[in-house]
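Hi R.,

Here's the chain you asked about this morning:
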Amino acid sequence: MQRVRPRLRERLAQRLNGTAPAPPQDTGGGVAATNGRPYDYRVRVLVEIHRDPDELALAEEVLTGRGWPVRAPKPGEYAPDEVTDGYVPRIVEVRLLGAREGAAQQALHMVMDLARATELALHVRDAALIQHRPDPHITWEVHPKRVPGPRERIRRFWTDDDTDDETPQPLRVIRIPEQAPESDALAAAASHSPAWPPFDAAEHGVRPARINRASPAWWGQAFLAVLTVGAAMLAIRFLHFPDEHASVLDSALLSVGISVMGLLTAVFGAGAWFALRQSSALRHVLPWALPVALPAVFAAVPQVGQLLHTSYLSAFDLSGEVDGGGWGDALRAGLFLTVAALYGLLIGLGAGGWVYRTTARSGTLLGITLFIGVYAGLAAGLFLATTVLERAGDSGDDARAAAAAYRAPGPYYGLEAEFVCVLPKDKEAPVYGGRLPTGRPLLTFGPKGDRVSLWDPKAERALGMRLEDATFVPAKSEHGKAICPRTP
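And here is the predicted structure, written out as tokens:
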């Protein structure tokens, strides 16, 4: 048993004999209350501790060490007749993280388990959840008595609801008892002033406030975010990029699309900056997350680029049978897909930042706003990434149509197709996928290891064979079509 110092023993004896001064009222500001540990709910647990000073000191030390304040019960919090002989009652405030349902039972069992684990002479008698008391006050707004100008009215259209246009925005809010008349609100506003300027009845007025009102700005920002994601989807699917063959009209549309997308990206980038400035979690995570993520990105993005190659080659039934080119080509393809996904995330986060910036005064929680914005951005990013894969499939279909007409398709992120004429070295050379035609050119994307995959435009099927079983001669071009030279 831990040794108790004489001064502490004397104070405990005074408390047991009833000669000690009354304990201070518990205001939640003690050492245990300010230890920095977060909690969701508080439960007051009535316990009995053995009257022995050593046991009492040890129990209070153990309970307080867990961050649970311990005090003597107040009148009405316990029944003196029900206290076990030789024990003294104490109130333990258990602070919990988690669900509200079952909090009292959880606190009771936590104290019982702690007493059993540390061999405390302690009995648990009661546990009750501390509930929030209703606030009997109502909010009033203090606003200047002036007519807003056109600029302020336009701004209010995006940041306010259906209040009177002739009434400016409030500069101060006060809380007074419910059912109080306007005169009480004026008196409360005039009685003190937390900040300059002081209240002046000739220049300021009061009106009831609507707390947690929904500003109409959110639907405009949400609509703009959906419009931006839709524009990005259309650009990915239908616009031709600089390395692709395009008409003059397509080039003009690309320039206009890039300008519009740049403007919208700047708008939502500013919203993401607002979210970053207001969220302490993002500010603390990003400085160390980015250096950790960048090496992983450079290693993972080329692997992501293989998805584009797979989607493109699926039109030829050659997925996984072709070497996808060099690391740089795979990096470019992966960046296309990754940037599309991150762009959707940026739009969702930016929309959440704008909604919070324009509705923060109305009680909108930043955490909920960013939570919705991040998940909406993830959904938009997944949608745009899927659109990129669909475009890769469309490019593969276009390449297949060109190959069916014996025209060589253009390069695609390191995939370069060419027509070859195959001269088998043996009539019984093994060919996977069907019979090997020798009188017409076949399309290939190059060898992979000791094997080569081919595609027959006439039969529209994929073939495969070993490099050592045949001789491959580049096909000739005649009138824009590939042909095999005639053999003597």
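One quick note: Confidence is low (pLDDT under 50) at residues 22-34, 161-166.

Cheers,
M.
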